[in-house]
Amino acid sequence: MTPEPSATAELIAVGDEVLAGHTVNSNASHLAIALATVGVEVRWHAAVGDREDDIVDALRRACSRASVVLVCGGLGPTPDDLTRHAAARLLDVPLDESPEALEHMRRIFESMCRSMAESNRRQALFPRGATLMPNDNGTAWGFNIACEGTPCYFLPGVPKELYAMTPGVLRDIAARVEGAALRHVAQLRTVGIGESDMVVRLSELLTRGGDPEVGTYASEGILTIRAIGQRKDEVERLADAIAERLGDLVYTRDDRSLEEVLVRTMSGSGRTLALAESCTGGLVGEMITRVSGSSAVLVEGAVVYSNEAKTRTCGVPAELIERHGAVSEPVSRALAEGMRERTGADYAISITGIAGPTGGTETKPVGLVYIGLADKGGTEVRECRFGANRERNRQRSARTALDMLRRRL
Amino acid sequence: MTPEPSATAELIAVGDEVLAGHTVNSNASHLAIALATVGVEVRWHAAVGDREDDIVDALRRACSRASVVLVCGGLGPTPDDLTRHAAARLLDVPLDESPEALEHMRRIFESMCRSMAESNRRQALFPRGATLMPNDNGTAWGFNIACEGTPCYFLPGVPKELYAMTPGVLRDIAARVEGAALRHVAQLRTVGIGESDMVVRLSELLTRGGDPEVGTYASEGILTIRAIGQRKDEVERLADAIAERLGDLVYTRDDRSLEEVLVRTMSGSGRTLALAESCTGGLVGEMITRVSGSSAVLVEGAVVYSNEAKTRTCGVPAELIERHGAVSEPVSRALAEGMRERTGADYAISITGIAGPTGGTETKPVGLVYIGLADKGGTEVRECRFGANRERNRQRSARTALDMLRRRL
Question: Cβ distance A255 to A373 under 8 Å?
Fold first, then answer.
């Protein structure tokens, strides 16, 4: 058992679209991860629809059990937006119009060359006694107020607006909620290792419920390790120890994606890349070009799905494909080398494999992928055997290729 | 106000990983959408951690207010998995071991050539009196039992397993829960129209709270329209009326993605496609090749990010790029035609634009994209002006290109 945390939170999402499943409640995920950095453990999530009674019920219950409550959504201009009314009812106070919030809204509408609808005025209403929380990205200001002694934060449901307001909310919570305090956070991101292997490798460094506390989170082949603690020097020392233990598995010590690190590294030193993708169909190119500034790095990509394209564009001899098959070590090598030659890029990546679910044979099963990397020093080809899931094979192939490039750089 | 629905549901997610935000609660979204098809309105979501007290509390409250309760997660083999224990405690019954569930688990481990750990035995425990719900995709069987008179379904948290069990759960709920009944569902998916335009266009056909009821849901540029009702003929008649009103905006009357419809249509008639992508960097290729069987359609794709690549691979004269700029109608046209010529494909798509956030000028702002489509009948180029968001520009460019192709087919 982990010890009882000193501060707990409940998150309440308000909105029919969340309840009905048309919007996934990603705000809850964002806030929970953020609250961990001020030492607050989220212990309850709730979602209710656009019904005043249900919002009041959820609020009352949350205030009775959590140290702090965060409510998202229901602050819009329509009659369905009832969060402010529910808060006022629970507190038994009237709603007052805020001249500052009204003025802010007028300016936003002006900047869009539109006049403000009368219905928007309700967005300037706040329960009497609330502290207003300006929103730079939309018309819905947030507010906070203690309900039955528990600090409650009411925030807009639009993720972009919520995210921008989160740091201010955290500072406020750290200052006001007993047991909460700004923590120091150190983060490392790794590629090429699974969560269970990581647990074994870090063993005693992975402390739960301690200070600093270390957690690992896997997402799309990237494993993030986060140390959170009250003392900066201790957090940094622990992160250093983890980084040393993991060596070159760590690709960054911040929040960046693997693609972003690669693009920055390569553009910083003027190096260029070309791609020859078969089973990934353009996924690696798509990932690289998500990064603004990738045009300085990516010279050209080829989606060479057909054998003819492999020959035409990457100069792979038809006879080589005939002899070894399109999914083979020699063809992967020829693809990478041919693409590098064609484009004059410093590095060329090739991916050829059987993504599935069909197309596998006894000797070449679904999930068999060859990944090639060519540069002036030579060509490396890695044989991978992934599983039967088409989409996962493609994702893992792309991630592995980028990791091979990272190690070469 | 919509009338009070006859059957309401509460969804409870169990698991520290959901609470802490490392797993987004997409199961709730899946179940809520599914429950609408049996006339059950989800009115509350809750999530609690791996604490028996909290699970019992959440269950008790849900049973006191909902017509039916669905609980996901906490059925695994570890000591943290406490859902079965919480259910038994609330019901005040013991947990009994099920020989059938145990045998099922043994067979799964056998098929993986592994022996079953003793700890897995707890997955064969069920509250006395529960009806077991087999799980073909994992070791955790589900179960259902009435708690304080309310039917409760306990399901695994792994999405793949949960999704496979959902149809059985819906049939059971339709048969057991008062006010619930299997409904008829007709779905249309559209591309190329926004939600607010759709609302105007369908106007009186968009009935809320009626029977049949019509809802619209937007996701990634695709707008889905769903009619749900008790009588099949009425649902079909309404869907036909909507389809007629929308004409060629409708690309399918089932669940398929736009890419899938395109690949099936083209492979069915032996037609082929080539791509020349600049600002989308391989995104269109990636989307097309998500579809199994796309190798019969996609001949070749080129990610021609650099001007040199546009000339080298698509034969765009350097002089043309010099004169008009890479983001221009003539270059888009030359890219599509050059790619078609190079590959001999029946159709070629080109995309060249300024994705942002930098690179815009007075005359060519961020968001300006030219999309070309060439076939034997000629070449069409569409000028689009999207917004300032890089990722959204890329997505909208890709979607628009696929929609142009669909209309041409």
Answer: no
Q: Is B66 in contact with B8 (CB distance < 8 Å)?
A: yes
Hey, are the CB atoms on A19 and B45 less than 8 Å from each other? Answer: yes
Best residue in B22, B48, B51 for a mutation probing chain A (most A CBs within 10 Å): B22
Per-run averaged pLDDT (10 residues), chain A, 409 residues: 70 94 90 93 96 97 97 92 96 96 90 82 95 92 94 95 96 94 93 82 79 84 90 94 94 94 96 96 95 93 94 96 96 97 97 88 90 97 88 91 95
Q: Do A302 and B300 touch (CB under 8 A)?
A: yes
Quote the pTM value: 0.84
Residue A5 is predicted with a pLDDT of 53
What digits encode the pLDDT tens for the residues A378-405?
999 999 998 778 888 899 999 999 999 9
CA distance B81 to chain A (A): 13
Q: List the single residue in B21, B48, B280 with the smallest CB-CB distance to A30.
A: B21
For residues B180 and B236, give the distance between their C-alpha atoms in angstroms, rounded to a whole number. 20
Chain B: residue nearest A219 by CA?
B22
Q: Which of B31, B46, B300 sits opposite A45 (nearest CB)?
A: B46
The residue of chain A with its CA nearest to that of B308 is A299
Taking only the tens place, the pLDDT of each residue in B128-170 is 999 999 999 888 999 999 998 999 999 999 999 999 999 999 9
Q: Which residue of A has its CA nearest to B36?
A: A20
Report pLDDT for A276.
97
SS (H, E, C) chain A: CCCCCCCEEEEEEECHHHHCCCCCCHHHHHHHHHHHCCCCEEEEEEEECCCHHHHHHHHHHHHHHCCEEEEECCCCCCCCCCHHHHHHHHHCCCEEECHHHHHHHHHHHHHCCCCCCHHHHHHHEEECCCEEECCCCCCCCEEEEEECCEEEEEECCCHHHHHHHHHHHHHHHHHHCCCCCCCEEEEEEEECCCHHHHHHHHHHHCCCCCCCEEEEEEECCEEEEEEEECCHHHHHHHHHHHHHHHHHHEEECCCCCHHHHHHHHHHHCCCCEEEEECCCCCHHHHHHHCCCCHHHCEEEEEECCCHHHHHHHHCCCHHHHHHHCCCCHHHHHHHHHHHHHHHCCCEEEEEEECCCCCCCCCCCCCCEEEEEEEECCEEEEEEEECCCCHHHHHHHHHHHHHHHHHHHC
CA angle, A364 as apex, A362 and A366 as ends, to 5°? 95
Residue in chain A closest to B356 (alpha carbons) equals A292
A33, A282, A288 member nearest B285 (Cβ)? A282
Tens of pLDDT along A20-43? 888 888 999 999 999 999 999 999
Q: Which residues in chain A are closer than 8 Å to B25, comparing Cβ atoms?
A: 24-25, 28-29, 45
Nearest to B17 by CA among B71, B56, B73: B73
Q: Is the ipTM above a cut-off of 0.85?
A: no
Per-residue pLDDT tens over the stretch B346-395: 999 999 999 888 888 888 989 999 999 999 999 999 999 987 788 888 99
